[in-house]
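ok trying again, last paste got cut off:
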Amino acid sequence: MTERDNVLPVLIDADIKKQDCYQIISDAGLMLPAVYFMGYPNANCIGCVKATSPTYWNHVRHYHPEVFQQRADQSRRIGARLVRYKGERIFLDELPADAKGRPLKGMDFECGIFCEEKQLNLNL
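nice, full thing came through this time. structure:
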């Protein structure tokens, strides 16, 4: 099962996990993208509009305040309440700066087509 019918899950088919990718990158003498060291679980779009976690959005607010503000303005313009806080969807500009939800999914999650919790001991 996949999210879309045009996804080519080449890493999944080759049984290459996220930890394997970290090792391949490290073995090649490369550093992981800096966003991993800022606590983001993935090195993709910062300020992902699919995210609803107050923990995530306050993380964005802390490390990338300009992105947070852009998303807050954008969400108001189009009427999208991006964050879920205390069981309700609210606008980003309504989110208290100290609001917390669940911890961010760290590097102990396998993000293939679907995110799955892994029982890994990562030594990066």
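cool. The chain is about 35% helix and 10% strand. The radius of gyration is 16 Å.
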